[in-house]
Amino acid sequence: MAEQAAPQFAAHEQNRVGARSTGEASGFLTFASVIMIMAGAFQAFTGLVAIVRNEFYVATRNYILQFDTTAWGWIHLILGALVLLAGIAVLSGQSWGRVVGIVMAGIGALGAFGFMPYYPFWTIVIIALDVFVIWALAVHGREASA
Fold first, then answer.
1. At what angle do helices 2-52 and 120-135 cross, to 10 degrees?
2. 143: pLDDT confidence band, cut at 50, 70 and 90?
3. Does residue 1 fall inside a structural domain?
4. Cα torsion at 128, 112, 43, 49 (round to 10°)?
5. Is 143 helix (H, G, I), strand (E, B) or coil?
6. Domain, as residue range, for 60
7. Helix 2-52 and helix 95-114: axis angle, to 10°?
8. What is the pLDDT of residues 26-67, one digit of tens each?
9. Within a domain: residue 15?
């Protein structure tokens, strides 16, 4: 009798663990896509401010990457819009959105690094969020699509 219950219990336990894993993956993907949408909007807004009022950001001296604030504004506006659109694609369940999201989050982190002399704290926050998004899309995206 106990031998018959053991396989049924094992199958039930496996289904429960698989459901939890899929639920966690779905939660991480949803969170990552919302973070992408918000970070893209914030990054686009940061770029818009740099374009409209380029004296708003004050650069530190002796930084290796020296660009015009307006140029960085355009870069951030375009990258922010692309990250926002990739976040919408991931949220809508598009598998290609995960790949685009990983690439855009990587590019966004590199672009944010170049903005470091203008707004260091915000840059660190954006880079940390981009790293989390890359992790969530790479690790948990596979689980959700399986």
1. 150
2. low
3. no
4. 140
5. helix
6. 9-145
7. 40
8. 788 888 889 889 888 988 898 888 888 866 666 666 655 566
9. yes
The angle at the Cα of 92, spanning 143 to 134, to the nearest 5 degrees, equals 50
Structural domain contains residue 2: no
- 118 within domain boundaries: yes
Would you tell me how many other CB atoms lie within 10 Å of the CB of residue 142?
Answer: 11
Tens digits of residue pLDDT in 81-101: 988 998 999 888 888 888 988
Q: Where are the beta strands (DSSP E) in 27-145?
A: none
CA distance 7 to 10: 5
Two tokens, residue 54: 């380029």
Number of domains comprising the chain: 1
* Nearest C-alpha neighbor of 133 from the set 63, 14, 33: 33
To the question of pTM greater than 0.70 for the whole model, the response is no
